[in-house]
Amino acid sequence: MYSAHNRALIELARKNKKIVSCYADFPPGEVAEVFQNEFPDRIIDVGIAEGHLITSAAGLADAGLIPFTHCHALFALGRGYNQIRQNVAYDNRNVKIVLCNSGVIWGGIGPSHLAIEDLAALRAIPNLVILSPSDAVSTEKATFAAADYVGPVILRLPSVGATYPTLYKNDLEFKIGKAICLRDGKDITLMATGILVKDALEVSEALEKKGIRARVLDIHTIKPLDEKAILAAAKETGAIVTVEDANILGGLGGAIAELTSERYPVPIRRVGVKDQFGESGTSEEIKECYGLTPAMIKKAVHHARKAKRGRR
Amino acid sequence: MDKEKLIQELQAKAVRLRRETLLIMKEMGSGWLGGSFSSADFIAALFFYRMKHDPRNACWSERDRLIISKGHSCEVIYAALAESGYIPREELKTYSHLGSRLQTHVDCRTPGIDCSGGSLGLGLSFAVGSAMGAYILPEKKNLSSSPRKQKARFRVYCVLGDGECNEGQVWEAAANAFHYKLDNLTAIVDSNKFQSTGAVRMKMDMISLAEKFKAFGWETREMDGNNMKEVVDTLDWVLTVEGKPQAVVAHTIKGKGFPSLENTNCHFVKITDDLLKKGLEAFVG
Lengths: 312, 285
Hints:
With 312 residues, chain A is α/β, with parallel strands linked by helices.
């Protein structure tokens, strides 16, 4: 997905002279060679200084440029929270912050680098648009959408070294704030974000064989939430399972629980990190350890449907 | 213009800014007196002498930037903005009122303010980004080539507090400014020797800030920041430096102009009738 983002960034930079790509000692991938050859001034590395990366990007935006910053999700967040809040969000700067290696499913690294709280922490900051695409195609489109949007955008990407299956065709219409219905259904809705959308989709397909029709929504925009699609799903399917690779406290699960409990309460179960720190291990082991597997999504579906029946 | 006359005019402006600052603070009943008064002289020189700007066109893309990293002491900035014509003088009466463009720390919603302040240690990084942007050519190598093919589109001035230099990010920015040879960037440290709750040296002894900037590769000068001739000379000098950012450590007196408050920690003070009366008598202009 990082490659898809980089391809989009290169295409954007060729079209738009204001695009600048910034790093805090983070690998620029495909961007490095193209930018060095074609527009060497528009690639900036500030060294291991994530706070400075974010604030200086706000300065670049002040000078009329459109900076995309790249660093580990956890350090953009942990070393740059005040900077994102004050220099980017509050001043409404046209800065695009790419959270690389976000979420808990990043094999072989360990808890110091696993951002479980990115969604929760950033959702609470006004003015931010938060995008969390689920495959290469939606990542590419999200990158274009971020550049088109005038204002601060967070773009959340998973492990930059890993490859992920493609879910969408190239004609995908990606609109900020508009969830994508991947499968329709009337019995329950799986609302997922990021790389676990694929697992939600698999579960929905498996459930169909048992006669359970599960709708699948790809919530690629965490903020602003597609309230219309979420509330419609609550009304039409009567139960929700949320699926994310971040802390369910304040994350996607938190956001959807907040919305539906106030506007249209239905039984909800949240699959995600249960307020724990990450661990070293392979990506598969991490998924297993934190219950981020199709089996756990199925279990959550079972419980949510049981609660739905209990309400009748 | 004759230099002596220029200095006299700027001195008169500084007196006027101090007077207006007092009147602004009266609106809230209290204010950042110490830092506003310590910085009033170089703020006057920046606004009315050094900076390339157009108050009728606050968003002019080629304007010199002024980043008030220390964030507080905003009253003297508001006085300068009104005196320059960015905002109507009448508006100064709304200082710190709910919904006002004049917040209690400098804020982007005010015309002429480039970066909101209040959270310390950030402004120099913003100034570095802005200064880099002034050198970036969309399709050629300029920012990181030596010598550069094209000059910077504008200069960036950043005002820091001496206490603020405790913050680590100041030094991330300082290192990065040298790395990119940002000679269009000037940092002015308002070294008034006091921070929020006490003397700077008692809180965290940073030894010499000038030596620190020098060690980070900056061209550095110290000046008496309340002596207009030294201020003007130093602001002339910064334009002569090539290939390096410049740091000016302005040794100032907190509360400068108020004998009873000078060199005390008058960081945030209540504006009593007595104080106001004394101030308005002292600052006639």
